[in-house]
Amino acid sequence: MTAVLIALADVGPSVQLEEQLVRAGLTATWDQAQVDGPKGGGMPTVVLVDADHLGKRLAQVAEAWRDHPSVPGVIAIGSSAVARDQAPGARVTLVAPTAKIATLVGAIQEAEKLRLATGMRWSVLRAACKLPPAREEESAWPAAILAARNVDIEIARSALRWHVSHYVTPTARIDVMREERMFSVPELEVAAQIDGTLTVQSLVKVGPLDPAQTARFLWALGSLGAVDFTPEIRDVNTPARRMLAEVRAHLRARTARLEKSTYYDVLEITPLAEYEEIETAYQLVAFRYSPDALDVFDLADLKPLTKPIWDLVERARSTLVDHAQRGRYHDWLRGKMSGLKTVWAIEPNAIKTAADYYLRGQRSLGEGDVHKAMSEFATACRQFPGHPEYEAHLSWARYRVQVGSGRDRAECAAAERKTIEALLWGCRPWPRALVALALICAAGGDADSARWHLHGALTVDPTLPAAVQLAQRLGMRR
Fold first, then answer.
1. Nearest to residue 288, comparing CAs of 267, 273, 270?
2. Predicted structure pTM score
């Protein structure tokens, strides 16, 4: 029989509710002492918690109840705005205090049915696999993994549904399990693919286990703390995770960057660009944002962004390479420019002046006059604010001037690095800007990031002299 614990604060409604549930055929007990969380006493299969009383503590208390040895289902009783806001995050059904008893009984029955699917933890795993309670220690893992292979698939599916689009990242515990040979051969193959770059929905499709067995395996690993489920990349400690994290950041930034922008901003070219420059820009944008470039990544929730981004690139290219369409587009721009935002659609004189001062800055930098270089790069940026190469080189020159004046090297490098990285999110690759970023990273003591950005620059332009020279200094193999 269903055992319901009523952990509500008010005496009157609680006693009345207890009587109604007993009349409905349930075993119900009110215990005000447990209103703020489990404090022993009884083994309930469902707990009614006081959402109005708990407020923002609802998720914390719900989790505490799920850690209880009886692994009860949790229902929240409440009607306040805070209760409504907190219930989804706490993964509980919210029932109004005025609800009919039949509605509450239905919610209780559903909570009992799914009580073993509200989360992944050791106690739930043991209960779902019909294993007796036991301390969580290595000697108990093999039996749990074995039993999990036959667990009710609805338990695994229901628990994983909260994490369908989450990335699955291994923890150190999975290595212990692998070394102790706790997995079958097919499970080992699945485990080998868990690297933090694939979501649950992708892993259940890749094999060699069938989807149901993969779901059971992932559920068991999650319950044992052998994997983490996270909506974003958990960390960038591997090249694959770092690359995916950057791709996701670029997609988000590009979507924001191109809102109410021009076709020139889409391709990152000026109105002076001719056919060859347009085509080169198109290829560079494709390098990062084309379907071929993005389809190799599991983008999870960001997948819907990819088609609109690329459709816009195709429209921009087809318009700007056609003289007639380009002329009509310019006529349209003249009437709409006040409502648009742009970095690239600026006056020809500003474009030419900025380019001239940028070249001067490069010469001054090569001659070792960093103060003059900073002044010239600053002029280029005033004429053409937001140009990745101009802004990145200004940051590098500014760093050198600041350090030369006695400022802290690490602090200056961190600040300028942040400036360049923010500038480059959502852009196409700019090799010279990446070289400047690599220089800043190396100056700040982060040689790994310096090599990472330098590799990106050389992938796009393998002959870029500054990149080649810095690669040799950093000991990179090409």
1. 267
2. 0.82
